[in-house]
Every structure is written in C-alpha cells, then in structure tokens.
Amino acid sequence: MTATLGAVVDAIEQAYPPALAESWDAVGLVCGDRAEPVDKVLFCVDPVEATIEEALEIGAQLVVAHHPLLLRGVHGVPADEPKGRLVHRMIRNGVGLLCAHTNADSADPGVSDALAQALGLTVHGPLDPHEPGSRTGIGRIGELPATEPFSVFLRRVADALPATAWGVRGAGDPDRPIRRVAVSGGAGDSYLGHAARAGVDAYVTADLRHHPAGEHVERGAGLPALVDVAHWASEWPWCQQAAEVVRSALAGTVEVFVSTRRTDPWTLHAQPESRGATE
Question: What three-state secondary structure class fits 204?
Fold first, then answer.
C-alpha cells in the first residue's frame, strides 16, 4: 500500500489545524500534487537550500517545514531569486513542500509541548490560551520533576537542545530555585508579561531583544529568570513530534526523517581571549 502526498497533508493538518494559524501567517501546501505517491518525508524547521538538498539526497517526495517559505506576498517565483530557485528545484524533482507554522505553535500538542518535553517538563497548560480553559494557545507552562538551581537548569536547557554558535544565555541569580517553567518555541519576548503573570520561576524562549529583556530584569527579583536560546534550536524538537504524527497515521507506508542540517543562520561565536565568558 502506497500513501499519497494528500494523505500526509491530511495527517499533519489534523494534528495542526490550519484554523489555528494567525491571520498573517502562510501555512499549508506550497507545492506538490496531492495525488502523487509518497514513501519518504523529511521534517525540518527551515525550508532552505540545505534541507531541500537533504530531501533530494534521501529521495523524499515531501518536505514538512515549520517556517513558511513564502510568508509575505510575492508576485512571482523566478528561478534567479533564492526562494524561486527552491520552488523550481522542488517542482523539477517532484518534491512537495508543506508548512505548519503558527498552527503548529498553537496546537495541542504543538511546538512548545515538544520543547517542554525536551527539557523534562510536565506540561500543565498553555502560556497564552486561545480562551480560558483551552488547551490550545501559544507557549506552555510546566514543572520540573524537582527543584534545581538556575545555573543547573541553564545547563539542562543547553544539553537538551541541538548545539548552536548562539548557545544558551541566562539572566538571573544562578542559585535561584527553579521548578515551574514557561516555554515558548520561537521568538517569545512578546510573552514576557504572560510569563510574569503566570508566576513561573523561569521563562525559556528565543530571540529575546535587549530592551524587553532588560526592562523585565529591572522590574524586580520576583519575576522569572530568563533563558534565551537560538530560534532554530527552540523549534527543532517539534520536527520529531510532527514525524511521529505521520508515522502513526500512515504506519508501514511512509518513512519519516528528521533533518540533521543545522539551519540556524549564526555560525560563529567569539569571546575576547583576555576576558572571561561572564564579562
């Protein structure tokens, strides 16, 4: 029995309903024929040259990506432009592209559940629910099996996620006890207020900007300690979650692969040789 591209799309969209996507988002099938057979699917965060090349190397007929390829409106996809080149390459090689972005962020389980699981948290609910009592929404609030110092928790985060040049940064007292934790995969400084109101001990997210983070720290010691990770790394655990969705829905008919290509744009990190890492 052979699965079709449409069957994979249906499985993903049942797990991550497009109706959950933000109004500005661009989710769904970018290219590909729903009637075509599929026996290999690659899951990744970013639909870029490296991951499309990986899909071709393994013979995948579909790439499922978290980030949209064509998020903003376009009037064409010429092959001499980066995004157009990818579209042409995929179509020429019979590779479809499906994007699940903010619908995967808000779904239950979704991107932040995968991040929480990677950190060893037991999830209690969303950080910003769609409505009171809802299990869907942005971010998750969870709990560690036992309290640990912030410095140990920071190492836990670094060990749980794929390594990047960006690394993992923390803002807070290294000896502060951490038990209740909020997480939000992707850029999450717009949810600093939600984390503060949730009364958690730490907030893990990506792309924390200088001013929002600084203002948060200045507001007082009772607010959550902050952990800032690379955007790509915070969302990479979702790839395995989404792969399991397809593996379970189409057992025995589709082989799933999680991309091993690091597509975080930052590739180098340097500290002055004469100074310590904390300066």
Answer: strand
Neighbours of 131 (CB within 10 A): 7
| Cβ-count burial 178-200 (b if 16+ within 10 Å, e if not) | bebbbbbbbebbebbebbbebeb
Q: What integer pLDDT is reported at residue 153 of this predicted model?
A: 98
Domain 3-104+235-258: give its CATH superfamily: NIF3 (NGG1p interacting factor 3)-like (3.40.1390.30)
Per residue in 166-216, pLDDT tens?
A: 899 999 999 999 999 999 999 999 999 999 999 999 999 999 999 999 999
The ranges of the chain with pLDDT < 50 are: 278-279
Distance set, CA 101 to CA 98, 138, 156 (Å): 10, 12, 26
- Distance between CA 90 and CA 74 in Å, rounded? 18
* Distance from C-alpha of 42 to C-alpha of 259, rounded to nearest angstrom: 6
pLDDT at 239: 98
Q: What residues form DSSP beta bridges with 228?
A: 169, 205
**Which DSSP symbol is given to 124?**
E
Say yes or no: do domains 3-104+235-258 and 108-229 share a fold. Answer: yes
- The secondary structure element, H or E, covering residue 271 is none
Which residues sit in the known binding site? Answer: 66-67, 105, 231, 235
The tokens for 152 are 């140990």
In the chain, domain spans: 3-104+235-258, 108-229
| Phi and psi, residue 234, nearest 5° | -70, -25
Tracing tokens 């790394």 back to the chain, one arrives at 233
- Contact indicator for 140, 127 with CB cutoff of 8 Å: yes
CB 206 within 8 A of CB 111: no
Residue positions in the annotated binding site for a divalent metal cation? 66-67, 105, 231, 235
pTM given for the model: 0.95
